[in-house]
Design a protein that fits this description.
The structure is a homodimer. Chain A is α+β, with helices and mostly antiparallel strands. The first copy, chain A, has helices spanning about 5-15, 20-40, 45-55, 110-115, 135-145, 150-175, 175-185, 190-195, 195-205, 210-220; strands spanning about 55-60, 65-70, 75-80, 85-90, 95-105, 105-110, 125, 130-135. In chain A, the strands form 2 sheets. Chain A has a 4-stranded antiparallel sheet with strand order 1-8-3-6. In chain A, a hairpin with a 5-residue loop joins strand 4 and strand 5. Chain A is globular. Chain B binds a DNA duplex through helix 10.
DNA sequence: AAAAAAGGTTGACATATGTCAATGTTACTT
DNA sequence: AAGTAACATTGACATATGTCAACCTTTTTT
């Protein structure tokens, strides 16, 4: 039995009609095309997009199911079409530490495992039922080499990613817990609404109790 | 009066002879060429390297002088040929928070300011007298577009950078201070020897006193 | 509707880390 | 050699955060 139904199947279940399913498919890829064009100076030609499209496979991950599990090599990177996922490590004592929270139009995967082909030390699972477009490394190498816009997009996204992650490091070494939280709320209001507090606390490197108290004090002001 | 002598001048001062100076110049760029080739699948042709070389300008930054100052836009990225630099922010109370420590064969610059053309919130200064090869953004765009090996190198370096920085975030949310320190010592033994403890403490997000005590306890075991 | 599960808050207390001041040590400057 | 500055260590104490347990609310499941 197939635990994870195919993405197409999932879309069908969602909308109930095959006709609408195909329409949704089109919409998903159109959205993706716009996303790519937003990050490059020259829009993709139809032919180029055809190549890109053939490299990305829709995939559904149901709530609480893994996209990547500790010990596996990260063979796919995923673009979230709809849904919410979290990336976390588990320490000696079995405590989960959130290192990433992602929603629509974000990418998920473990770069280290992906690049180095080493077993991942992270888990990535779905916090909500999630629709992804996934791509293999081989295909990524292909389209990055062949299609300048994709090359440009990947470079820009790496840049943005580096910038975001640098800010997070700066916050972690230079801000106390309460500032880190307000900083987070200002930077990612959409995440605050999608994930419960105890996950955000973990993301910030504090306990849920501390976050609860920090929030209370912030209200008092 | 020129506070920062030209890089060539600096080399001359170091070695004392113009002949050796030119030789050093050659060696510096040969080293740089090897560095680039190490990160790409096809070596640079002589012609390509000529272009690259023309884009990188030697620069000397004396100990305690700024490479980038808070409020400036980061116009140059630098490759450290010899020396040691630190990148830090300064908080409301005037306390410095180290966000980066760099030595030979590392790159320095503020990605956010560089990419977004916004005033930097960081300072970068020399901890030791430092020789750099610096490049402007315009030139970077040129060679990344024109020379596949450079494109590849930049992408790979961004990848490595992302991986390293991701590990640091994971450490900061999931490890206590003592583990963060041993982790750091294992990951960057060369930095431990080049920078004093209070800078490393700041890099780890703890005070120098805490680091001193952490080290003492670690010895006891 | 009842039960269970997940999330959130609060209090009491323990622990880790920060702060401040004094002192020791090392390396550099004159 | 003396003096100074930078770095490191230590102690006493304050503060922030963690831990554990109880309790409450909301949502989900049965």
């Amino acid at each position: 039995m197939q635990l994870v139904p195919s993405a197409k199947q999932a879309f069908v279940e969602n909308v109930g009609h095959v006709a609408e399913c195909n329409l949704l498919y089109l919409l998903v890829f159109e959205n993706f095309r716009n996303y790519i064009n937003k990050y490059s100076t020259t829009p993709l030609t139809d032919e180029q997009f055809g190549v890109v499209r053939s490299c990305f496979r829709p995939k559904t991950v149901r709530k609480r199911q893994y996209f990547l599990q500790e010990g596996e090599v990260c063979k796919y990177f995923g673009f979230i079409v709809k849904g919410a996922m979290r990336q976390y490590s588990v320490d000696d004592k079995g405590v989960e530490h959130i290192v990433g929270l992602s929603i629509e139009n974000w990418w998920v995967g473990d770069r280290e495992s992906w690049v180095m082909l080493t077993p991942s030390t992270y888990n990535i699972d779905a916090w909500e039922d999630t629709e992804l477009l996934v791509v293999t490394k081989a295909d990524t190498v292909q389209i990055v080499q062949q299609i300048p816009s994709i090359n440009e997009m990947v470079r820009k996204m790496d840049e943005m990613h580096s910038i975001a992650i640098q800010k997070r490091i700066n916050a972690s070494v230079s801000l106390p817990a309460d500032k880190r939280y307000t900083d987070f709320v200002n930077s990612y209001p959409s995440l605050v609404q999608r994930f419960p507090q105890h996950l955000i606390a973990s993301y910030l490197g504090i306990t849920k109790e501390t976050l609860s108290r920090v929030r209370k004090r912030a209200l008092g002001k």
